[in-house]
Amino acid sequence: MTNECLYDAELLAGLKSGNQEAFTHIYRKYWQRLYNAAFKRVKNKEQCQDIVQCVFTSLWDRRGEVNINNISAYLHTAVKFQVFKQAVRSPNTTEFLEAFEHIITSPVNTDDAILEKEILLMIKLWIDALPDKRRKIFLMHYNDDLSTAEIAGKLNISRKTVQNQLNTASQALRLRLVQLLSLLILSSFFSR
Questions:
Q1: Do residues 34 and 79 lie in contact, with contact meaning Cβ atoms separated by under 8 Å?
Q2: Nearest in space to 80 (alpha carbons), one of 56, 53, 104
């Protein structure tokens, strides 16, 4: 076990017993890292500060309830969930989709593997349920990275039709993702 792991284990033991100094050390050690992780997902300084503050407030409030083996993984997962919560509340769906894209494409810790599988399964099921033409256009655009003009040419349809199909699919996906993330947030809340 490395010195850093031993130090983190000592801090966790102190945190669990309510030691304010141990909490302060954790806060100082991880605040900037968590802020940077949040900023990669949500490009808004105030929101990122709020996200990190919520993570640390929750850590302190739940210090006696949760069993943490890896403080870094725990805190980074907590940041992801706070980003989820911010995204669900955000009326700006573009910001939401960017945040969600960063979440599902970011390196995943073993603690996040189940969450990632569930999200990817839900997206796959949603894509499979699309009408044939819309699914084909959606996959050509997002999987094959083809422009609307290229898709229109390959499918021998108008560019406007491609744009309409993509807009319809994107709006439906946003709605499904908001529903999925709301369920995940609720389930994480009730499993505390």
A1: yes
A2: 104
Percent of the chain with pLDDT over 90: 27
Q: Which residues contact 177 (CB under 8 A, 6 or more apart)?
A: 96, 97, 100
Residue 156 is predicted with a pLDDT of 95
Indicate whether 98 belongs to any domain.
Answer: no
Q: Is residue 102 part of a domain?
A: no
Which span out of 68-72, 150-154, 184-188 was modeled with the highest average pLDDT? 150-154
**Helix, strand or coil, per DSSP, at residue 65:** coil
Handedness of CA 49, 54, 57, 62 (dihedral sign): negative
171 in the Ramachandran plot: left (φ > 0), alpha (ψ -120 to 50) or beta?
Answer: alpha
Output the domain CATH number for residue 38.
Answer: 1.10.1740.10
The pLDDT score that the predictor gives to residue 145 is 82
pTM above 0.85, yes or no: no
More confident residue, 165 or 6: 165
Provide the residue range defining the domain that includes 141: 108-192
Tell me: do 135 and 178 sit in the same domain. yes
Instruction: Pick the last residue of a domain from 57, 91, 125.
Output: 91
